[in-house]
Amino acid sequence: xxxxxxxxxxxxxxxxxxxxxxxxxxxxxxxxxxxxxxFDALLLLHQTRVDLNRAARQDLYLLPNLDxxxxxxxxxxxxxVGAIHSLDELIGAxxxxxxxxxxxxAFIIIGDPSAARxxxxxxxxxxxxxxxxxxxxPPAFALQARVRTLGNLDMGVAAALTRNGLRRVRWDSNxxxxxxxxxxxxxxxxxxxxxxxxEHWELVAGTYRIGFGQRLTFDVTDQVTPNGSFxxxxxxxGSDLGLRCNRGPGELPESPCPSAPRVRVTPDYKWxxxxxxxxxxxxxxxxxxxxxxxxxxxSYQVHRIAQIELVDTxxxxxxxxxxxxxxxxxxxxxxxxxxxxxASTARLATLPAIYAEGxxxxxxxxxxxxxxxxxxxxxxxxxxxxxxxxxxxFQEFSRKPFGGPFGAIGxxxxxxxxxxxxxxxxxxxxxxxxxxxxxxAALVRGVTTLPKGELDLSLRYYGSxxxxxxxxxxxxxxxxxxxxxxxxxxxxxxxxxxxGPQVVLRALLDGWRQLSTGVLxxxxxxxxxxxxxxxxxWATWGExxxxxxQRFVVAAKFAYAPVRPISLSGQARYRWSGKxxxxxxxxxxxxxxxxxxxxxxxxRLRCRVRYDLEDVWDNHRLxxxxxxxxxxxxxxxxxxxxxLRYDFRVFLDERESTLSRAPNPEHWLWLEYxxxx
Length: 677
Description:
- The chain is mainly beta.
- It has three domains: 1-115, no CATH class; 119-398, no CATH class; 399-542, no CATH class.
- 8% of the residues lie in helices and 49% in strands.
- It has seven helices and 37 strands.
């Protein structure tokens, strides 16, 4: 299925989302049709799914392409018939148009209401990839599994075979620095959970995500409208090779890494650490005209951290003093079998099991109905450093506040009537930072559902001292000390409008002021999708971003499906970036061509070719690359899929790092098997 632009009336994501596989989401991100925030939300949604027969209003609104009017029609139909058995029912009842029903298929579960409660459903997903003779062995490998049984019991696990990470970090008192064991093969199980979720209670133990309100006080869900907890078994696949050896000289006369060739290897499968512990929620306790909701959660999560985010607090009282040599990140020596032998240092390493975070939080909300509630949320966190003998802390640009415990408390509210929905949240953060102590933040948002579109207007204020790493509300892309929801006051307007039967317009206008500097910034994005005929579609979009480095983007995409088994799409983008009035604006060019074929019902072939040229006037400064792949997907049974993929990627620029790069070209082999029963 080609990711062609379609018509829709929802403003959550930048384009109409119509996918079959997870790789389709990566393609949308790589081609810059969706933002990283949209990718995070959609990836999680694709891996966890929404149950149409149990989801609340805010859960259904997470589904791509749906506005509140369509969500309310689904809920009305479900209430009228008792349970939804298939998407065809929603189409037949005029609750959803056929193209909308097809577009949410990859993100939903429709449980059979007539099936026995003891019926078991399971998913097993195996993935592996390898890039040839320069790569480490065994190949990168990942496993995800999920089992649903007894009607309300859900269990999930994610595991990976990693080869590229340092191990067993400790403090070396002789060197007054950190040391770690070199890279080696490890089998890790970063995600494991058991969840019980019925009409009144939700309980999850293990790795999980939770969030509430407008995401201003606490959220780790990546969802647009979070309300509660769920198990987490997400894994991710990177798309860039990493250096096999990345060492500094340290105590040696020179680096042990050869200057040429600079060998690169397949990246390991990755994951995001959120929470690990227990969360319990009372979903509905009838009280007066409405119901009470209450949640409590606790987590003790061991975290990785980038080396550059560390500081030795014994040598640095305030990490804001960048000119103080003692405030630099402590070096990490890669130790051998004999600790007294001179050793090299790791460069830009990610260090495992450096600190643990004990966290506890609670939420209580009163709902008058699905569209009106008032709630309070609060949490507290205490980091604990696991490296004995060292006084470590966070650098000022790390997401976590330095100095000790931190937390936040906030109030959120929502109400709606007719086509209007309003949301608000006010929060206060608390921290132990020098010259800090916490600050205030507020967000007000209104959504208007129109017959042929949706308007979303929000006002925000995030104080300069609002240091809350668990806040993920609407915010500008710039950061202060590693946090986006900080040091800004702004207004954002977002709309999707259907202009006639074949044209959809999407627009985003965001303006904000940095509180600490008084600088005004703006972001403008517009996109028009035009379905010319049943076979031809066209999209054009542009972006302007003001700030320290201005950016202009214009792009266009076409899609052509001459017959059912074959579809074709292409995209071209030109970008200017830099500062107006400066010496020269950087100009970048990219072009993409996709071809998909379905020769038989159980076989799908896909080919993509992408060309990127960054800085068209200087081939010695930034990358120039050609990237193509061929994917074969074979449906072995009705529920099982085997995917094979070959990638060819070559770097064509004349930078010194490219000339010494190995392998170049790159040859990637991917294998994926998805088994369901």
